[in-house]
Each structure stands twice: as structure tokens, then as C-alpha cells.
């Protein structure tokens, strides 16, 4: 029961963050939103008994990709026209 | 003439694709019933790896893993070629706070050890070469973020990368020489659930881990060198 509620919360946050990532004009906020998507996805993978994928998603999706996007934004423009 | 060749080529591809799909009865879920069950039931006996995901990634689909590693290598090389500068840009002199710096210095060796643990135990516990390599790269990222003057030696990184990539291909070729096929498991399996088991799977995952770790660190370093 608790697990079901947790899963529903995770999925709702995931979809909300994914929509925000598309909607934001500020690219830094969009990158943070997409890293939230990865974080939620990694917890969902762990609950669904796929720890291998959860590890990959946490290390690459939340950590490295976010930072690489941040560096790229610092090099280019922060706001989308 | 070219059109004739193109049509011939398409016909050959179509013929083989049709033959493959014709073997699967229409409307039947063959994948779930036969393939998954056979991996789960006979994976440990056939590959010696307790972690079924590892036995699929490195043993059953080892050639695909070689392709994935090659894709990552090409991406890193392309990035280095696009962002190449003779004189790296000076990064801002401002350092992180003392708390971040001290924390990073304490955490860095622990993160590296965690990454090495993850890829050495790839055949026993969740995780493997890609995950361990990404963890190692995030450890280096922490150092890049907290110490503005922190440098990695690109020559050493490419040496590690070359060594790991070559040993992956060489292990595959050994399988071709002494075994039945490319990447065949030629070493004895040992006792399942112990560190020295599963033949060449741990060796391949160590190579993949070193390769992914050094490649991602090189990518981060290249990115950071081109921004102020």
C-alpha cells in the first residue's frame, strides 16, 4: 500500500518535471528539471527491481549529464528565444 | 545501374529479415516465454556469473558491448576534435569554499574505491563496467568543481583507455583462438558466487570500467577547458 502511494507520487513528480523541462525558457532550470526526471526514474527502477539500470541512471542521468549540460550552457546562451 | 544495385541490396536485406521474422509465430509473445526463461534458468550454469544482467551484457551479448564501448570512444574523440584548442582557456581563479574543498578531498578516494568495487564485483552484485566508470568520472568531476587548478594528465588517460580497449579486443581474440567464438569464455568458471569466478567476465568488466572512467573524465576535462 505504502509502496503504491510512493510509486504514484514518484510518477506524478516525474511527469511534472518532464513537462517543466520542456516548458521552461531558462535553460538552467530546464536542465535541473530533467535531472529531477532522471532521479525519479532511478528510484522507480530500483523499486521495480532493476538495480543495474538504477545505478546507471543515477550516475549518468543525474550526475554527469547535468554537469555537461551546465558547462555547455555557460559556454553558450542561458535563455531560449 | 546504381538503382539496380540498391534494389538488389534491399531485396537481400528484406529476404533475411522476412526469414527471421517468419520463424516467430504471428501474434505470439515468443520473447517472454522462451528467451527470458532460458536466460533465467540456465544463465548461471552457462556463464558462471550470478548477476544475470552481467551475464547477458558481457557474455551472451558481449559483441554488442564492444560496439557500445566503441560508440562512447567515438563520441569522446569527436568532442575532443571539435573543442580542440592549442592553449586551454584560463578558468576563473575563484575557488570553492573550504567546506567543499575539504569534503571533496576526503570523499574523492572513497568515490574512486566505490567505482572500482562496482566494476570488480560486476558479476556478483548489481552494476558493472559502465556504472563503475561513471562513478569514477563523477569523483573526478567533484575534484574539478572544487579545485579550479586541478588537472588530469591527458597522456595518462589515453594510455589507460588504449590499454583497456586493446585488452577487451585481445580477450575476445583469445576466445576465438582457444575457444569456439569471439569473446568465448575460455577461463574456468570456478565456484559461483565467489570473486574469482565466471571466467573472463570480471576481466572484461574491469577493462570496460577503466575505459569508460578515463573516457568520461577526458570528456569533462575537454568541456571544462573550453569555458571560462
UniProtKB/TrEMBL annotation, chain A:
<dbReference type="InterPro" id="IPR025383">
    <property type="entry name" value="MrpA_C/MbhD"/>
</dbReference>
<protein>
    <submittedName>
        <fullName>DUF4040 domain-containing protein</fullName>
    </submittedName>
</protein>
<feature type="transmembrane region" description="Helical">
    <location>
        <begin position="6"/>
        <end position="24"/>
    </location>
</feature>
<keyword id="KW-0472">Membrane</keyword>
<keyword id="KW-1133">Transmembrane helix</keyword>
<feature type="transmembrane region" description="Helical">
    <location>
        <begin position="54"/>
        <end position="73"/>
    </location>
</feature>
<keyword id="KW-1003">Cell membrane</keyword>
<feature type="domain" description="MrpA C-terminal/MbhD">
    <location>
        <begin position="12"/>
        <end position="78"/>
    </location>
</feature>
<dbReference type="Pfam" id="PF13244">
    <property type="entry name" value="MbhD"/>
</dbReference>
<dbReference type="InterPro" id="IPR042106">
    <property type="entry name" value="Nuo/plastoQ_OxRdtase_6_NuoJ"/>
</dbReference>
<keyword id="KW-0812">Transmembrane</keyword>
<dbReference type="GO" id="GO:0005886">
    <property type="term" value="C:plasma membrane"/>
</dbReference>
<feature type="transmembrane region" description="Helical">
    <location>
        <begin position="31"/>
        <end position="48"/>
    </location>
</feature>
From TrEMBL, chain B:
<dbReference type="InterPro" id="IPR007182">
    <property type="entry name" value="MnhB"/>
</dbReference>
<feature type="transmembrane region" description="Helical">
    <location>
        <begin position="159"/>
        <end position="179"/>
    </location>
</feature>
<keyword id="KW-1003">Cell membrane</keyword>
<keyword id="KW-0472">Membrane</keyword>
<feature type="domain" description="MrpA C-terminal/MbhE">
    <location>
        <begin position="28"/>
        <end position="93"/>
    </location>
</feature>
<dbReference type="InterPro" id="IPR050622">
    <property type="entry name" value="CPA3_antiporter_subunitB"/>
</dbReference>
<keyword id="KW-1133">Transmembrane helix</keyword>
<dbReference type="GO" id="GO:0005886">
    <property type="term" value="C:plasma membrane"/>
</dbReference>
<feature type="transmembrane region" description="Helical">
    <location>
        <begin position="65"/>
        <end position="85"/>
    </location>
</feature>
<protein>
    <submittedName>
        <fullName>Cation:proton antiporter</fullName>
    </submittedName>
</protein>
<feature type="transmembrane region" description="Helical">
    <location>
        <begin position="199"/>
        <end position="220"/>
    </location>
</feature>
<dbReference type="Pfam" id="PF20501">
    <property type="entry name" value="MbhE"/>
</dbReference>
<feature type="transmembrane region" description="Helical">
    <location>
        <begin position="106"/>
        <end position="124"/>
    </location>
</feature>
<dbReference type="InterPro" id="IPR046806">
    <property type="entry name" value="MrpA_C/MbhE"/>
</dbReference>
<feature type="domain" description="Na+/H+ antiporter MnhB subunit-related protein">
    <location>
        <begin position="99"/>
        <end position="217"/>
    </location>
</feature>
<dbReference type="Pfam" id="PF04039">
    <property type="entry name" value="MnhB"/>
</dbReference>
<comment type="similarity">
    <text>Belongs to the CPA3 antiporters (TC 2.A.63) subunit B family.</text>
</comment>
<keyword id="KW-0812">Transmembrane</keyword>
<feature type="transmembrane region" description="Helical">
    <location>
        <begin position="130"/>
        <end position="147"/>
    </location>
</feature>
Amino acid at each position: 500500500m505504502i509502496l503504491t502511494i510512493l510509486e504514484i507520487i514518484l510518477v506524478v513528480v516525474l511527469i511534472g518535471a518532464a513537462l517543466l523541462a520542456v516548458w521552461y525558457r531558462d535553460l538552467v532550470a530546464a536542465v535541473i528539471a530533467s535531472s529531477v526526471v532522471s532521479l525519479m526514474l532511478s528510484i522507480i527502477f530500483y523499486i521495480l527491481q532493476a538495480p543495474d539500470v538504477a545505478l546507471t541512471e543515477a550516475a549518468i542521468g543525474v550526475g554527469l549529464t547535468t554537469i555537461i549540460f551546465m558547462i555547455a550552457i555557460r559556454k553558450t546562451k542561458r535563455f531560449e528565444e | 545501374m546504381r538503382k539496380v544495385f540498391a534494389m538488389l541490396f534491399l531485396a537481400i536485406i528484406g529476404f533475411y529479415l522476412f526469414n527471421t521474422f517468419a520463424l516467430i509465430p504471428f501474434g505470439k509473445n515468443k520473447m517472454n516465454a522462451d528467451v527470458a526463461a532460458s536466460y533465467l534458468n540456465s544463465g548461471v550454469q552457462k556463464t558462471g556469473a550470478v548477476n544475470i544482467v552481467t551475464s547477458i551484457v558481457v557474455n551472451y551479448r558481449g559483441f554488442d558491448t564492444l560496439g557500445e564501448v566503441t560508440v562512447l570512444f567515438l563520441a569522446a574523440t569527436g568532442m575532443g576534435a571539435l573543442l580542440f584548442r592549442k592553449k586551454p582557456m584560463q578558468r576563473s581563479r575563484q575557488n570553492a569554499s573550504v567546506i567543499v574543498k575539504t569534503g571533496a578531498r576526503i570523499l574523492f578516494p572513497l568515490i574512486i574505491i566505490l567505482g572500482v568495487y562496482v566494476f570488480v564485483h560486476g558479476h556478483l552484485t548489481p552494476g558493472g563496467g559502465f556504472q563503475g566508470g561513471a562513478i569514477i568520472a563523477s569523483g573526478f568531476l567533484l575534484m574539478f568543481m572544487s579545485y579550479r587548478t586541478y588537472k588530469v594528465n591527458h597522456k595518462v588517460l589515453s594510455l589507460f583507455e588504449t590499454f583497456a580497449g586493446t585488452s577487451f579486443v585481445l580477450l575476445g581474440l583469445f576466445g576465438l583462438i582457444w575457444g569456439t567464438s569471439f569473446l568465448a569464455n575460455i577461463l574456468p568458471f570456478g565456484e559461483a558466487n565467489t570473486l574469482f569466478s565466471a571466467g573472463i567476465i570480471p576481466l572484461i568488466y574491469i577493462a570496460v570500467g577503466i575505459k569508460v572512467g578515463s573516457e568520461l573524465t577526458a570528456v569533462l576535462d575537454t568541456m571544462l577547458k573550453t569555458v571560462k
